[in-house]
Amino acid sequence: MRPLKRDYAPSRWRYRLSRWWLSPRVRLMVKRGLPLSVIAMVVGGLAANPHNQAWVRAQVMAAHSAVVDHPEFAVLALEIEGAGPDLTAEVADALAVELPASSLRLDLDEARARVEALAPIDTAQLTIGPDKALKVRVTERIPVAVWRDRQGLHLVDPHGVVVSDLSPAPERPDLPMIFGTGAAEHVGEALALAEAAGPLGPRIRGMVRVGERRWDIALDRGQRILLPESGAVEALLHVLALHLSEEMLERDIEAIDMRDRTRPTVRLTDHAVREMRRLRAMEAGEDA
């Protein structure tokens, strides 16, 4: 009996598996996708453990601190320029920086905002120098007038910002005095009037904001100049011209009303009114 010949042809399933293995997608999935999936499962299992999570966080924080707190990034000193002793102390308190500190932990923009929030500070610049010092250069607000309202006396800058309060009130004869609600917001107009007053300047006791829309100028001897809402400087120059030519403000005048530029009005003092009536009565008696 003849032995049967061995069939070396692959079986149907083996043939299909061979063809399937030749597919690029299958080979990529088995060689890369499957190992990555196993690794992801292992890592996910480890990451789900709270103890492992705490250990990873501790390692990350340690690495972060090692970089941030490196001596190369240390800030060792604080230098404040452009401020007096009292204001320097206020700036230091506003910064609240505990030295030594890491420059990577300092938010310079936020620190600058805290410094500029101080009333006496106009602008501030913060830099960290090569000498590891935090340098703060400040520009103080310059007071240009004394504003009096119901709360008291205040120094204001050209923008009407209150620089500081005057309590108890010291003498500031070098600054014009303004009064009334809304006067600080229009301090520029008051300064223009003070400059235009010229020779009347020494006699000005203050400028009063009336109805939050116009100015009165209070002079010594109880005199007052009532100015219009618009063209106040021109109206004041008109009064000044009358005074220089006729010495009007040297007479018994209580007020000069310039609110209507076309019809200026002069208000006499009570003494001047009585004297005028007496003279008229004398003239009337002589005529009789």
Tags for this entry?
alpha/beta, 3-stranded mixed β-sheet, 288 residues, Ubiquitin-like (UB roll), 8 helices, 9-stranded mixed β-sheet, Rossmann fold
Q: Would you mind describing this structure in some detail?
A:
By secondary structure, the protein is of the alpha/beta class. Among the domains are: 71-140, Ubiquitin-like (UB roll) (Roll), CATH 3.10.20.310; 145-275, Rossmann fold (3-Layer(aba) Sandwich). Helices cover 40% and strands 24% of the residues. The chain is built from 8 helices and 14 strands. The protein has helices spanning 12-21, 24-47, 50-68, 85-95, 108-116, 187-196, 232-246, 270-287; strands spanning 74-75, 77-81, 101-102, 121-128, 133-140, 145-149, 152-156, 162-166, 177-179, 204-210, 214-219, 224-226, 253-257, 265-268. The chain is elongated. The termini are far apart. It comes from Pontivivens ytuae. It is a single-pass type II membrane protein.
How does the SSE layout of this entry go?
Layout: H1 12-21, H2 24-47, H3 50-68, E1 74-75, E2 77-81, H4 85-95, E3 101-102, H5 108-116, E4 121-128, E5 133-140, E6 145-149, E7 152-156, E8 162-166, E9 177-179, H6 187-196, E10 204-210, E11 214-219, E12 224-226, H7 232-246, E13 253-257, E14 265-268, H8 270-287
Parallel strand pairs: 2-5, 6-9, 9-10, 12-13
Antiparallel strand pairs: 1-3, 4-5, 6-7, 7-8, 10-11, 11-12, 13-14
